[in-house]
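User: Please check token order:
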Amino acid sequence: MRHKRQDCSAVNDNLPMNPLDAMLAFARVAELGSFTQAAASLGLPKASVSTSVQRLEALLGTRLLHRTTRRVALTQDGRAFYERCRDLLADMDELQTMFRPAHEALTGRLRVDMPLGAARQLVVPRLPEFLAAHPQVEVELSSTDRRVDLVREGFDCVLRVGPLSDSTLVARPLGHCLQKNFASPGYLARHGTPRTLADLAQHRLVHYVPMLGGRSAGFEYVDTATGEARSVAMAGALTVNNSEAYEAACLAGVGLIQAPEMGLAPMLAAGRLVEVLPEFRAPPMAVSLLYANRRHLPKRVQAFMEWVAQVMQPVLVD
């Protein structure tokens, strides 16, 4: 939602407030957590943004933001107002473009999130294609293994790998990514190559948990006889909570890992990693695009999701 309006390049306290401009200023402060950054993104003086938010708070009769010298955070009322405000601004975007020809250039800002591996190996290398096709669209890309809150943190859409739990969001399934078991050549030279599940007792696993302190599932695999997911408890000296450390630990020879093939294919092809126990792979992981349940999804969001689906398609299975 990137609007720039000529009539708010400067704010005069004696002029009537434009509620949409004030809501836009508030939304940008809420998303960026900073009056300075919000002003820069809107091309306005910081004082103008601050005044707009203050006048909006006065109109609503409540405080929307907690302000300190170091940070800005939403109040409880501010969080509720932001969710409604964001939908309204998205609807205004849609209204402004609904009668324009379909081929007209897309404009505005996209805020998206996706896992580190997908961003690094698949999306970012091809992102120049999307930006060249839509030169007036600006992309804010968050890449983290943390499960972001799409609505509260102001994302237009997120690419998620794994099971879904956000029942209030709309999910667009893209397929499944295969998982493989990896080890470094150096690790295998020191410890040998496991051939059976029983061999795992003599090996180490790099444990992955979303939050440190959680319990690792161990070595996961699909029982070919029943099709059920099972696991084997394994020893391991290292537990990590993000994919980059997970991959780095495997490359360093700390232990075995189980990870989506799409992120590690280049290292597998280069011989820096080796697949082991191919008949005992972890279950494939669902890949989905998530977005808020809105009546009208901005065209730039629709275009980006279609493009991401095409980028991901070659590395996914049904």
